[in-house]
Amino acid sequence: MHRKRRSGCLPVCLVALCLCLGAGCITAGLMKEKGDAPALVREVVQKVAQKNIPFREIAVTEEEVEGKFYYGLLDETEKQVYKEILDGLRENADTIYLHSGDGERVNFIFQNVLNDHPEIFWCGGTATATTFPERLGQDAYVELTPQYSYSGSDKERMLAEIETAAESCLAQIPEEATEYEKIKFVYEYLINTVDYQMDAPDNQNIYSALVNHASVCAGYARSTQYLLEKAGIFCAYVTGTAADGDGNLENHAWNLVQCNGNYYFVDTTWGDPVFSQEAGMSSQEEAPLQKRAMPYDYLCCSGRELFKTHTLEEGYAYPECAWEDLNYYQLNGMYYDSFEPEQIRDKIYRSIDRKEEAIVFKFADESVYQQAHDVILEELVRDAAAYLGRSYDLSEVRYSYEEERTLCKLTIYWSYE
């Protein structure tokens, strides 16, 4: 299988950390050395130490952040800092003053805010944090200086375009749709409308996918989160690594969703079909390039399934995703706990009778896959090719197949010409 390479699709969220002693601390040191300092010096020290820090008056309400995954991981003090950062980012504040004396923890909270809020596309995830320690009459605080990609009229225009695109998408979901059907719709919508492009503009935010229709994993995952949250579905943005077709680990982003009260993973990026030329033909000629069927392995899948190729970033307490009841292949009669050759043969022949472009076999585990693999490809499919030729009066029969050993899946593609 030839999979699109996703190398470098997920940059690290950076906050430069600085420690500033401040004029108050320096002057206080001079007083200690001189002993009895003049009254004027004492007054200056006090004025500097008690300067008015312009902390923001928080406009963010608890209702706005209630249920946000990363917000819920913080203690009460950190939640206040989270709201201060969120409020500042919304306003494109040049400097955000925070009730914290820990620049490294501010970095963590800053990332949490961006992970929870895909709509903040105008902040690229880079900032400088300067820590001012506690001094006379003044608690420690941090000055956070974010870097913005957009502001002003450009930001407002792009935001309007995003909202229009989202409304157009969600308007297509039937009112009576279940939670699973909403998740499946968004999964298919993004796969069908977005092209995976490493050099796509704005590829770390939702504008790339929803408006430009070209992105990488971060754009896919943030757009999945944005649309599902608007549809009333819990969805979190998660990061980690994933193995490419050659087994190399790459930074990656995907989603955690809640459906019918249970948690599942969704990876819209890896659901995007690519082209494959894994082929076998009765005519022994080179097979035509076949477009892959849309993979549903990453739609509401369990941790057992996802962790065959993905690894979650450490440092977060993610809920267990143990349910497999929404496995697409189980729901649609393509999943096999055991290998029954005649059952498979019958499915293949019916696929040809219905003139289906492809048929998929998803097996429960590696042992069942191994039992089925050679028999299907070396016996059943060759018999089916002869049946295909007789059924459609073909002088030459063409088919191709795709092997996905890690996912325990085989896909057969038919040509009726």
List keywords for this structure.
417 residues, alpha+beta, C8orf32 fold, Translation Initiation Factor IF3, four-stranded mixed beta sheet, four-stranded antiparallel beta sheet, 13 helices, elongated, disordered N terminus
Structural summary, described in words:
The protein folds into three domains: 14-149, no CATH class; 159-322, C8orf32 fold (Roll), CATH 3.10.620; 333-417, Translation Initiation Factor IF3. It has 13 helices and 16 strands. 35% of the residues are buried. With 417 residues, it is α+β, with helices and mostly antiparallel strands. Mean pLDDT is 86; it is low at 1-8, 21-49 and 275-289. It has helices at 22-34, 39-49, 62-65, 76-90, 103-116, 152-170, 179-193, 206-210, 217-230, 303-306, 328-331, 341-353, 366-392, and strands at 14-19, 96-98, 123-132, 141-148, 195-196, 214-215, 235-243, 249-259, 262-266, 275-276, 290-291, 310-312, 335-336, 358-363, 398-404, 409-415. The two termini are 24 Å apart. It is elongated, with a radius of gyration of 28 Å. A four-stranded mixed sheet has the order 1-3-4-2, covered by helices on one side. Strand 8 (249-259) and strand 9 (262-266) form a beta hairpin.
Class based on secondary structure composition and strand pairing? alpha+beta
Tell me the domain tally.
3
Could you say what the CATH architecture of the largest domain is? Roll
Our estimate of the beta-strand percent is: 15-25%
Low-confidence stretches: 1-8, 21-49, 275-289
CATH class of the largest domain: Alpha Beta
Count the beta strands.
Answer: 16
